Fold these 4 entries.
Entry 1:
Amino acid sequence: MQFLVVVGVQRSGSTYLYQLLNKHPQIVMAQPVRPEPKFFLDEHLFNKGKKYYQKKYFNNIDDKTLYTGEKSTSYIEYITCALRIKQFYPHVRILIILRDPVMRAYSNYCFSIDNQLETLTFSQALKAEKQRLADKQVATSVNPFAYRTRGYYINYIKPYFDIFHQSQIKVLIIEELANNLEYTQDLYKWLGVDPQFVPDSFSKVYNETVNTPIFLQRINRKLAEPSLL
């Protein structure tokens, strides 16, 4: 049995990726998708051990299952999480999903609005970001106001490449993955599961923010339209 984990990035299509994985008959993903497990972020939970983790999230595997896995997008912001994952699963497959950083930043902002974490306008929030990031006292697992900073992807990706071999990591782009059967089946092939499987979640939009403006909604819907290829 192998293990995979989607470590981030937030607001980059990780729920869509989760569904592509979870729908595959040879992959069992930790449920529910929300709230995320964040197991490797919580020292108390981590200290309960690997057997506890597997029993809590993966008691529904069968003879077809080749992978168990989870999605917790906070992991990419903590080196501690990478080290804990490696301790339990040294041969893990790491999935990182990215998005156009401007689109991601505004989606992050809308998400913060929806969850009553944000009161500023987007412009005001960008101006206040540096000062807000200096405040370590936040109620969420990661700072909800890192709209621009979280888009400097290399700062989050590099530590994972330092800890894991590059052959264990696959970086995906949501604009290329969404509604792209060839790209999806290439992912399945990389994992070593049946690459011919076509998930029924293929053309759906997941976890869309309530306050997403019309122009972003149209782009998201466009990504979900049936492919003309």
Entry 2:
Amino acid sequence: MKVGGPAPSAYDVAEHYDDAYYADLARRYTRRSRFARRRIANVLSLLPHVEGRRVVDIGCGMGTFTIECARRGAHALGVDPAPAALPAARRVAEGEGVRNAWFARADGARLPLADRSMDVALAADVTEHLDDHTLAAVLGEAGRVLRPGGALVVYTPSPTHLFERLRESRLLRADPSHIGLRPAEELAAALRRAGFEVERVAFLPSHVPLLSALERALARRVPLLRRRIGIVALRPSSAS
């Protein structure tokens, strides 16, 4: 991006998601690295009961949570616009022997789903890649496809955490695709504008053992220890 030029959009950073990007995530998942185990545990702690329910995993990448939901009895659909994502997701699902996991190439801002057709929507490690306009579109689409009373789960890095502060100071390498890091309050406000009722806001730990213990104990009081934000929001039962 040129200095003084327009802020990048979600589509400007899409080239970051290539075969190597998804291959790395797939290796972490299939080997159940400490990072993958913590990520899975964090997101599962936010999800409602999914057995027998229809779940859409928005920005599914190589399919971690589509697969994890299908493993737990959901009818799970993963959608992602990146050409490299879905072949990786299908390979991982096949290798894991998981059924009821389907994948479609689609933009989260234009979901190929009928109104009120899903019980649960998930956006895990997605919103940090979205500009404000695209975020609003994705949340609007999630609200459209969820049945009244359905749940949307958002999981994303917190910009207040020590790691993100070090990235801002260039002491750690920044991720150029993270154009939309937002604090919990800002995300909750965006969800409310999209018509959701925010049921729960959680701060979830990293995979680093000692740091994780500190994050669990102090994140509510110490923003520097808020590694991940988890939000559960509901589509109102009275929604038209």
Entry 3:
Amino acid sequence: MAGHSKWANIQHRKGKQDAKKAKVFSKLSKEITIAAKMGGPDADMNPRLRLAVANARGQSMPKDNIERAISKGAGGDAAVYEEIRYEGFAPGGIGVIVEVSTDNRNRAAADVRAAFSKNGGNLGETGSVAFMFDQVGEVRYPAEAADETAMLEGAIEAGAQDVVSDQDGHVVTCAREDLSDVAAALEARFGEPESANMVWRPQTSVDIEGEAAASVLKLLSSLEDSDDVQNVFANFEISEEEMERLAD
């Protein structure tokens, strides 16, 4: 979701993400708890937990918060979360995939449906959007972690499929089943990543601007505000100039 990534970067540079830090930590904690509950508290033996902890550290989540989330999951007293994928369309026919972890399916469904309907979009059937995306592993590093050549060499040796490097950082992609191994190899060489996740990468993207761009971003923000929503992906592109204008 290149357009949305640009939006996140601009918002971060303008300092508007501070108020959302608690919500980010809450979602990271939930993923850590789910991973520990499903696969145990030993990150060395639990690839999902290892990735969740790496993501939390990449977002500067305090160590105490991470340890509490692991203990909660391992202790067996955590809520039982159901993982659900919703698919729909934003204004302009933009495909949207919403990943949810919830202990209340009815609440989550109502929140997602409301976000779409209030912002000019509509929910679709399962499979109506996913065919336009590929699910891959993605590892992100800041630009200062390595130069472009070193990151490319490291990614190839780790078994990755592709690397895109620019002023905002390095994005390494790999087969979904290789994510844990690739992330571990990169961490051994470059240190902890900013994030390491399964993502839905669009096969093609739609260029949008003006009112359509504003509507799409409003919908995505509404979805991300839901406590049940863990990740949102969409197949759009917005120019840097348009992003700067919308961020003002």
Entry 4:
Amino acid sequence: MSAMDAEGWVLAGGRSLRMGRNKAKVELAGVPLLERMLGKLSKIGLRARIAGMREPVEGIAAEVVSDLHPDCGPLSGLETALSRSETPLVMMLGVDLPLIETGFLMWMLGRAQVTGAAATIPRVLGQPQPLCAVYHRELLGGITRALDSGDYKTMTAVENAATEARLDLFEVERIAVTGVWDSAFSAHCQFMNCNTREDVATATALLAGTPML
């Protein structure tokens, strides 16, 4: 498989209540979060689209697709991506993960292509990170059923949708120490969500001496 067997999608349909403004527009070192996340997907060779967005972000030309189940959380964005994908695999990225490194994303995509798992989901400090993961289109039916039933918990829905298919949950810290991808930050830092202005300030400080997308 190659990058042509996968698409990249950024989840940008959240309400951004803790940030107090649309997170997609928030700038980190002068670059909007949405632009950063789309750039990461493009850098690893994926077509990059946006699942749900409440208002336009200036300078963003990527296609925006409205969620089929609006206001139902990240799971609705996953449904949108899987339903519109033209490839078997979909890499999902939350719009608020600006420290995720492209070397890791490329490695994770390669893992998903080799294993054929229904979902390839990293765990950091033992916690699954479903908003930075690779999903197979075969999960769509189960994801839609979960949304229709009012079950909006992403991990629960993915686990139920997989039925007999294999899920691949891997420990990022354990693999990172082998050096299979170059990393400027610890796994914990890479997966830091920018949910508040304080988070953005922290991420800005971390990026100060480390140019990256």
